[in-house]
Amino acid sequence: MHVNGATHVMTGDPSAATLATFYAMGVRNFDYRGAFESLYRQATVPRPEGLQDGGCPGQCVGQRPNLAQYLGSHYAANDVCHCWGGAAETLEDSVADYSLGQWAKALGRTKEAAELSARGEYWRNVFNPATGYTQARNVDGSWVTPFDPASDRGFAQGSAAAYTWMVPQDVSGLASAMGGKATAAARLDGFFHDTGGNWQLEGGGPLKYDPTNEPDIHAPWLYNELGQPWKTQETVRQLAETVYTTGPSGLPGNDDLGTMSAWYVFAALGVYPRTPGSGELLLSSPLFPKAVVRSGSGAVLTITASGAGKYIQDVRRGGHPQRDWKLDPSFVRSGGTLDFRLSPTPTGWGG
């Protein structure tokens, strides 16, 4: 809902991912057990609205379109899914189900946690090893052809090249499917640069990173888990300082209820949510010497940065060395201090 009106949804089930993340980050001032029950039913009980095409593509009526087919095939079939794009729907629902699975685990719902966590891996069913990209499939199991990674066939407001990275819940699994972390990192390099190694962060076409929409805006942070955190630091900083500007056209695209603005705020703080359904935060280099964030629960997060440059020399959490590229959920739930020392050149921190 937005301004007391139904927004339906473009693809996937964002309510599940959002509320599961709220819970993981410590929010408790809502009927979280009732909310989980409602979202679990939505994810497991097919409804007739899921077979309606009203509003498609765009704001399709069914929150879980053709759920019966999805539960049977373990992917949204592009030819019968009653959704904007079968490949996009599968990726979105995989994230939503993973999130619900994490929530179920936290609530002690062991059976539901196992069921939903397994569904969080359904993204694998639309990753085609022959092309190396996420690709739409038909209900008979065949791949939708002809395939072009620059095409949006089977996707929603984005190309196969952009959507392929949309597996934040299983970055290591995606890297393995691509041939390993080094291969995945090299592909990510090509996603952000032209053939000459120059930055290409906007207007590069459907084979390049698109900062104006949601499917790939988390991609700069993936280098952390691929073993090259310094590339997250330089890519995030480059985006914050060149793609985002001041003035009426300061955002790279439609703010989409604050999404683009939120990306910049996280980039400026040097932290970013690792994946929906989790309270973990990924680290990059802050833009400001000091920032204080106060949560509704009373937690205070204080982030400082000293030194010049865009690379992390080291980080101390509560006065103790922070050597990992991610923070456990206790930081966002309970608060604390993060003190960064920055460097003008890449370092081995977090690698």
Automatic annotation (TrEMBL):
Residue ranges annotated for the Glycosyl hydrolase family domain, each copy included: 3-343
A single Gene Ontology CC annotation of this entry is: cytosol
Which residues lie in coiled coils? none
- GO biological process terms, semicolon-separated: carbohydrate metabolic process; glycoprotein catabolic process
The Swiss-Prot or TrEMBL record annotates one GO molecular function as:
peptide-N4-(N-acetyl-beta-glucosaminyl)asparagine amidase activity
Q: Which InterPro entries match?
A: 6-hairpin_glycosidase_sf, Glyco_hydro_92, PNGase
What Gene3D superfamilies does the database record attribute to this sequence?
A: alpha-1,2-mannosidase (1.20.1050.60), GH92 mannosidase domain (3.30.2080.10)
Q: Know the name of this protein?
A: Alpha-1,2-mannosidase, putative
Species the sequence originates in:
Amycolatopsis saalfeldensis
Q: What is the lineage of its organism?
A: Bacteria, Bacillati, Actinomycetota, Actinomycetes, Pseudonocardiales
